[in-house]
Structures are given as C-alpha cells and as structure tokens.
Known about the structure:
This protein is of the alpha/beta class. The protein has helices spanning about 1-20, 20-25, 35-40, 125-130, 150-155, 160-170, 190-205, 225-230, 280-295, 315-335, 340-345, 525-570; strands at about 45-50, 110-115, 135-140, 175, 215, 235-240, 275-280, 295-305, 305, 315, 335-340, 375, 380, 380-385, 390-395, 405-415, 420-425, 440-450, 455-460, 465-470, 480-485, 495-505, 510-520. The chain is built from 12 helices and 23 strands. The strands form 8 sheets. Strands 2, 3, 4, 8 and 11 form a 5-stranded parallel sheet that branches. A hairpin with a 4-residue loop joins strand 19 (about 455-460) and strand 20.
Amino acid sequence: MRPARWGIQLAGAALALLASPAGLALAGASPAHGTSAGSSATASPSVSSTAAGSGSPALSPRPAPSTSSAPLPSSSAQWLTGPPAPRPARHAGRPRTVALAEPARLHKTVVTFAWGGGLADQMPSLPMFAKYGMHATYFVPSGLVCVLAQQQCHRSSPYLTLGDIRKVAAAGNEIGGLSVLHQQLTTTPVAEAKREVCDDRANLFRWGFRPTDFAYPFAAVNPAVETLTRACGYNAGLGTGTLRGAGLCLTCAWAESIPPQDPLDVRTPIEVNSVNTTWTAGTYEHDVREAQLHGGGWVVFTIHDICQENCPLGTTPAILSEVLSWLAGQQKAGTTFVETMAAVIGGPVRPAVPGPAPRRLHGTGVANARLAAGSGSLPACFQAANYGHTVASFTYRPGGGPQGAAAETVRTTRQGSGIAKLLPRMDLGLCAPSVVAGHAYRAGIWYQASSQPQMEIYRRTSLGSWVYWTTSPAFPASGSWRHALWQTPTVPAGTTAISFGLAAKSAGTITTTDYSLTAARNYRTLIWIGVLALALAAAGLIGRGHYRYVRYARAEAAEALAVQDAEMRS
C-alpha cells in the first residue's frame, strides 16, 4: 500500500545518500531514525470493525500452518518459486557504519475473487476484470438461475440469467457450484444435502459448463459435507472466515497454502463487508501485503454484490476498480497474480453424479400429513411462506385439530402485497410431494378460516427450482372444521413435485391440518375406454349377426337347389 511504498522509497534514498560523498562523510555520524518498509507495510488496514473477538463460529481460529509456497498444479507454479533476494556483501576494512533497515522481502502471492450468490448485479465486474486481463470465479446456485427471457428476468429476478452465465464463462472466468437452492448443508439431512450438491453440478453440466470447485452456502461445512462434495465430483470446496483479515481472526494465518492443507475447505478471510466490517480498497491491499510479508500463498476474497454504495457482502465499482488497478501493478512487479480457483487447485473434470432419487410418499401423498411431528412454530416437513410486507405469525398446536390431530394457525395482522400460508416444504425430494407430468391431482386440506381461503399451488421444475403454478377457486369461510378439496389442472411438462397451501387475501386467521394429495381419476380416459368397449361390443354383435345371416342364406340356397333338383328328376 502507499505507506509501504513510502518506506521503500525512504530506504532507497538513504542508500543512495550513503553512496555519495556526503554520505561517506556521514558514515561516522549518529544513526538516522526513520520508518522501515517492514513497519510501514504492517500498518492497520483501512477497515472499521465492531466484531473482533465476537466468537462467531466462522471466525474460530485454526492452527495456522506454514504458508510457504508449494508448486501450483499448473503453469502458475513459477509465480511462487525463484531464488532468494541477494543480500549486500560485507566489505572488510571499511569504517564501521550503522546499517539502514532493508526493505522487507515480498513473497509471491496468488489472489482469487470468488463471487457468490449468483446475483445479476455482479455483471458490471466483467469489463473491470477484462480491462486488466484478469479472471474470477463465479459460484452459481443453478435452481435460482432465471431461465426466462432476458428482459423478463431483469424485471422480475435478482439472479443471473443463463445468458449472463454463458457471458461470464465466455470471458474466461470460472463457473463453480453453490447448491441448487442455496441451502445450508450442515443442518440438512445427508440425502437432501447430496441432492443439493450433486444435482446442482448436474444442472451446470447440462448447460455445458464443467464445474470443478464448490462454495459452501453460508460458509457452513463439516466433514460429512466435505465427503459428499467430493462424492459429487468436485475437486475443492470454499469456506470463509478462517484466515486473518479485515481486523478479525487475529490468530489465523494471513494466507492459504498452495496446495491447500484441506482442498475441500479452502481457507479465506471473512466475506467482504460482513461481521460488522466496512471494507475499503486499503483493506484488500493490506490483506495481500501482509500475505506477501508472511510467506506468500493464496488469498481468496469472497464478494456477493456490486452496489453503488458500500453494502453488506458487496463492494462498489470504484473500490473494485482501485483494487484491480493496484493488483495490476503488483502483477507487473511479479509479486502477486490474480487467478481463478480452478487455476490454483487444478485436477481433473470428473463426471457429473446424480443425487439420490426423491423418496416416495405413500398413503396421503404428503409427508407428516396430520402435522403430528413438529417443534417450535412449525410442523416437520412444512415451511412458512410469507412475502410482500405482509405481517403474520405462525403457531403450531399439537392436538389442536380434529380427532386429536395437530394443527397450524396462520394469523395475518397486516395484509401486504403477498399472502402468508403454510406449505409442504419446497425441497428436492425429502418432503415435497412428487407428481407425474401429464396427470391431474386432488389436493385436500382440512381447515378453519375467518375469511374465504384459496388454495395456492407451486411446482418444482426439472432444475429443482420452485415457481408459482395456479390458484383454486375460493372456499367458504368456516368456524368449524371443513374439508377443502380441489382437482388441479393437468401437471405441466417438466414438473417433478408440487406444494400447496390455503391462504386468504385479507387479514384474519386460517388453521389447517390433514393434508392429502392423490392422483385424480382421468374420467376422460375412462369415457374413451367405455366408448371403445361399446364400439368393440357393437362390432362383435354386428359380426355375429352377419355370420348368422350368411349361414341362413346359404342354408336357404341349398334347400332351394335340393327342391329344384327333386322337381327335375320327377
């Protein structure tokens, strides 16, 4: 950073002074006192923090291994090797002088920019990296990618479109995985977590990408999640908050080693502008400079957004531009290089591995249909859905339903543009009821409602994303238990599951229990089968009558011939 450069310039000027006649005259004088390069480079970063020592699990210190540079598994290995800097020779016979501090040696360091969240506001970063010939890694949750028309996506979705992702990759950047629905994996059952990781990678493969690196949603990782990440075909996984930086994790190392001590949990500083920190361009530069001064290695910056003003987990175009310009100077000096995660990790592209098949739900067709299992405010395998500034509370009541069943009450106190409701959990196969495209289904819910409710239905696409599908006609308000039963339209192609719940368009209460989903009988098919059966029966009767008529006609003809023959003989 600037203080470090001033220190180096000061030391260089002093050495030049010693080489001059005036300098020789000063050789026996009192030593000059000044700021060394090393002390300047370790100045406090340009960051404000109120969370140091907060005890966040993501920031718990780990033993700091040596960050001495091991060869990269790519042509980048030369960056981290090379002979040590020559030291000035000592000359005997000269008058003893007081030596000035040498500039600190800067060890070669690799920097990676890791973009998470799959958000559309990351797109302005592309020309900024391209300006300096740099590349980054963009981690994408495939189930949140907008696959509508580009303009429609820009109006209705905050996420990258498929066209955006293709543009990112075409510019030479890496596309990595981030799970299908960006779910925290450490609190998810193993089979569902494996669907999130494996199906996400399979989706990216179907789009033509070949991801080899994964970022753990919310930086939550444990040995079980590492194991399934490897099983899904990834070479590495990215955590966060386990390196020193931005004034936090003060006992951690400044950089990850190359290769990493654990490729499935690559260490990084905390995410940009997280944990009550505010990052400036100086924050990035300070972290890189400290890595250079402490053995070099690999520094990964994780960012989610580009905002007009500094925002949580994001940065601004001005800050990013200043950081990239500074790094470009470091690249020219041969001290630091910007690379993608794949360029540092290396390794083969393994085949895509499908996640476990969704579990089959028998009987009612809905997991925990009578809400018997539950804790806190929700029954197991169900979720609260509320959006659009609607204010609502959710209350789970064991034994609050008919015949001792449990029940859930949704109380809306202020109606916004959205509607609050209880839904079977919209996941990839643990709880969501599976359906077959081309079939219709009968959805049922027992309810009490203060106003007329409607049944809202959502469907899961083949990518694993969830979208609104349709709404039923209104059911009567009822103070006693009543059964809402509605047959859906034919399930659209590409649909693998549905989720449904009762909601009202006004403030009030809705209590529900005993959910069911069964395949509807296709009466049209039954009618056609009946018509075909009648046609076949009629054809049989006609054929049988014709056969009898032919036999009768032949018998009459034979009898007439016999009579005629008898007459001729007589």
